[in-house]
Design brief:
Structural class: mainly alpha
Largest sheet: 2 strands, antiparallel
Number of strands: 2
Strand order of the largest sheet: 1-2
Number of helices: 11
Order of helices and strands: HHHHHHHEEHHHH
Amino acid sequence: MGYGAIFVWETIGTALLILLGTGVVANAVLKNTNGNNGGTLFINVGWAFAVFTGASVANPSGAHLNPAVTLGLAIADKVSWDKVPFYFAGQMVGAIIGAMLCWATYKLQFDKHDEPQNTLGIFSTAPRVAGTAWNLVTEIIGTFVLLIWILESPTVKTGTDGVPQFGNSALGYAGVAFVVLVIGTSLGGPTGYAINPARDLGPRIAYAFLMPIKGKGDGNWGYSWVPVVGPLVGGALAALLSLALPAS
C-alpha cells in the first residue's frame, strides 16, 4: 500500500477510535447527558468497541491506529520501516480530529459543565496515584499485553489433516476489542490505560490548543510523556520477545 493511502486510512480509523472512545468518557462524566455516571465498566466497554469500529474501517492499512503497534510490527519485521512515519502521522492527525469531533458532539454539555477545569480527563489519561516510574511501568505492561497478543495470537493455518485452523482470526477485530476490554478492566486502574501514544497525545494537544472550553484546565504536560514513552517501550519489548520465541 502506498504512503498516502496509509496516511488516509490511519487518519480515518484513528479519528473514529478517538471520537467514540473519548465520547463514551464525555457521556459518563459531563452533566446533562444520557450516560452521566455510567461508571468505569461503561467506559471500558465503550473504548473496546471504539477500537473495533476504528480498526474495522481502517482495515486497508492494517488498522494499526497506534504508534506502539506500528513500532512493534516494524521491530518484528512485519512492516517496513519506510512506512512507519506515515502510520505515525495519520494516527496523530486522526487523534486530533477525533477529539475535536467529540468536543463538537458534546459542545452544549461542555458549556454547562460546572467543573470545566477538570475536563482534560475526558480526552487524556492521568495517574490515580502519581509516581512517574511506576506509572511508566503500568503503561509498559498494559501495552506489552496488547502487542504480544497481536504478534502471537494464532491465525489461519492448515492443519496436518488439511483442515483450516482459523485461530483467533475468525474473531476479526472483535478479538482486539476483547483484549482492550480486559486490559482496561484489569490493568487500567492506575493510569487509565493509554496504551497508545496517539490516543493520549493527540487529544491532549487538541484540548490544550484547539478546544474553546471556557475555564478549562491545562494539558498536564509534566505527565504527558509517560503515556507516550511507556506504550512505545511496551510495544518494543513485546516485539523483541516475539522475535526470540520459537516458531509455532
